[in-house]
Specification:
Blueprint (H helix, E strand, L loop, with lengths): L1 H13 L3 H9 L8 H38 L2 H49 L3 H8 L5 H41 L1 E4 L2 E4 L1 H21 L2 H24 L1 H7 L2 H53 L5 H18 L1 H4 L1 H26 L5 E4 L4 E9 L5 E10 L4 E6 L5 H8 L6 E7 L4 E4 L8 E2 H6 L9 H10 L12 E2 L1 H4 L2 H15 L3 E5 L7 H14 L4 E5 L11 E6 L2 E5 L3
Parallel strand pairs: 3-7, 6-12, 6-13, 8-11, 11-12
Antiparallel strand pairs: 1-2, 4-5, 4-7, 9-10, 13-14
Helix pairs in contact: 1-13, 3-4, 3-6, 3-11, 4-6, 6-11, 6-13, 7-10, 7-11, 8-10, 8-13, 10-11, 16-18, 18-19
GO molecular function: ABC-type transporter activity; ATP binding; ATP hydrolysis activity
Protein name: ABC transporter ATP-binding protein
Subcellular location: Cell membrane
Length: 574
């Protein structure tokens, strides 16, 4: 699935759909609530881009007068034209500065809008979870942070560059056509022959550039993925530093990182080889272009049909026309990078769309006042059955303990209740009441301890006294003085302290239904008993569905269900 999603955009190009899908990714911003300011900025940038073309035309005419003054040794005209050029240069500098400034402003606003939309979509429909579990796409963080940045920058840069080149092409084509005159070849008179020379020269060059450099698109796509994989591997080492250190796993991790970097290395070498061949051609193409116009126009100059100023004007106009025709050549590397970035964003969006449109195999609704599991079957990705036709009812106020062998499906059943398990059939009706899930490894966001305790609510939801009270109740008095301290608490606290912090979060949130998955596995039995008793005492009427192994947990539950051989079996509570 990962490869299919990754290369779907590439296949789309073969079927003529790539540009349609990319256009659908570009246009929403320009129809959004930001459209007024976006179009205003775009109009200003386009105006300044066209103004830069006008400056180039202005300088082209200046060339003619300046070189004619040099040829005639006209000192007064020379200094007058130097002053004239200073004025042109001043205006050109101001235009270039504000064109860049407004382009950057438009780019960051577009990127901000796209990033916010992708954040919202990635976090909706559990996309962030399902895409990771199913392996539908790699490194979504890179696609949102880096690919969107590259996409907006390159789209505007290439789009405005193309527009500027088209306008410049038209302007200088008119000039070149007018000054180049005609030439007779095999008895045929060709008007504006310099224009046709520029067209043929650039056309052949563009075709050869694509033949030489087309592999850069796929290689650029792979390079982005390999670089992101390497960064992710290094983040994994940081996140699991203690475990790696205790295992003395440094040699193993070193090999893993070297393997990841080896992919970066080899792919980059392939990019270097293609780029070398492409640069050989483009550099030669550009060097020949410097003298090509002189070679073609020289016969008319030596025949006395044009003056030096006109020759220089022809050379300038030819250079601009040839350069505009050759836009594809000069922009090829950027086009390849833009195509690779677009492919990655399109495959990312396609993966989210497929997840959003995938029908829920297990129907989960929240209504009524009790938990009902009806005809529930759950499967693993390899087709193995975990549960078969499971039925269960949990009444309000009941405390149910789920047990079973490792891998029997206890945690998976809780995931299904949390709408996280896609494979199976049947239905689950959750109570329409305030609920909270406590996983075995609680999530502790980076921030103040108050923010950690109140998650997913804002830290202003409770008073400082209440925060201190739940910490005392959950046997974490040493943290009371650190409530306003911002830190990476998941690294600072032991697994047992993290689980006690999760219980403190539950006491703050005060749910009516609490679903716990091995939520006390890192605690000793004394802490476990104290915290369970705190839940019972402080949250009267609390309904609990708890996954656990320890026999010491049974006394806190009035009901015990065991998963055995894919079936739910009621157990006696002793």
């Amino acid at each position: 699935m990962n490869q299919n999603a990754e290369y779907s955009a590439v296949n789309d190009a073969v079927h003529g759909q790539f540009f349609r899908r990319t256009w659908a990714m570009i246009t929403p911003y320009w129809r959004s609530e930001e459209k007024g300011r976006a179009w205003l900025l775009l109009a200003a940038v386009i105006a300044l881009s066209l103004f830069s073309v006008a400056i180039s035309v202005w300088i082209n005419h200046w060339y003619k007068d300046f070189y004619n003054a040099l040829e005639k040794k006209d000192t007064a005209a020379f200094w007058q034209l130097i002053g004239y050029f200073c004025g042109i240069a001043t205006v050109a500098i101001l235009g270039a500065v504000y064109r860049l400034y407004l382009t950057q402003m438009l780019t960051i606003r577009w990127r901000a809008w796209l990033t916010e939309k992708h954040f919202a979509r990635w976090l909706a429909h559990k996309n962030y979870y399902q895409l990771e579990q199913g392996g539908y796409t790699d490194n979504p963080d890179q696609r949102i942070s880096e690919d969107l940045n590259s996409f907006t920058t390159n789209t505007l840069g290439l789009g405005l560059g193309l527009l500027r080149n088209v306008v410049s092409l038209v302007s200088f084509s008119v000039i070149l056509w007018g000054v180049s005159g005609s030439i007779e070849v095999f008895g045929i008179t060709i008007p504006g022959y310099m224009f046709w020379c520029a067209l043929v020269y650039a056309g052949v060059g563009s075709w050869l550039t694509h033949l030489i450099g087309r592999r850069l698109i796929g290689l650029s796509n792979q390079q982005q993925r390999f670089e992101a994989d390497l960064r992710f591997s290094m983040v994994r080492v940081r996140e699991n530093a203690e475990s790696i250190a205790l295992y003395n796993g440094e040699p193993n991790e070193n090999e893993r990182l070297k393997t990841r970097f080896g992919r970066v290395w080899h792919n980059y070498w392939d990019i270097m080889k293609v780029s070398k061949r492409l640069t050989f051609f483009t550099a030669g193409y550009e060097q020949i272009a410097i003298v090509f116009a002189f070679i073609v126009a020289a016969p008319r100059y030596f025949a006395g049909k044009i003056e030096l100023g006109e020759l220089m004007q022809i050379n300038s106009a030819f250079g601009n026309v040839q350069g505009n025709f050759s836009w594809f050549i000069s922009a090829y590397t950027d086009l390849a990078a833009w195509r690779a970035t677009s492919d990655r964003l399109l495959s990312f969006q396609q993966a989210m769309t497929e997840n959003e449109q995938r029908p829920a195999a297990i129907e989960v609704n929240a209504d009524g006042d009790r938990l009902m599991v009806q005809g529930l079957g759950m499967n693993l990705a390899d087709g193995r059955h975990l549960l078969t036709d499971a039925n269960m009812i949990v009444e309000p106020g009941q405390r149910l303990m789920l047990s079973g062998r490792s891998g029997s499906g206890k945690s998976t059943l809780l995931r299904a209740m949390g709408r996280l398990w896609p494979a199976g059939h049947g239905s689950i009706r959750l109570p329409a009441a305030r609920y909270l899930f406590l996983p075995q490894k609680p999530y502790l966001p980076i921030g103040t301890l108050k923010a950690v305790l109140s998650y997913p609510q804002d830290d202003s939801a409770y008073t400082a006294e209440r925060y201190a009270q739940v910490l005392e109740t959950c046997r974490l008095p040493q943290l009371v003085a650190r409530l306003d301290e911002a830190n990476h608490w998941q690294r600072m606290l032991s697994p047992g302290e993290q689980q006690r912090l999760a219980f403190a979060r539950a006491l703050l949130f005060a749910p009516q239904w609490l679903y716990m998955d091995e939520a006390t596995s890192a605690m000793d039995e004394e802490d476990e008993a104290s915290l369970y008793q705190a839940l019972i005492d402080e949250l009267p009427g609390l309904s609990i569905v708890s996954v656990g192994h320890r026999s010491s947990l049974k006394r806190f539950h009035g009901r015990h269900v065991r998963i055995e051989g894919g079936w739910l079996q009621e157990q006696s509570v002793s």
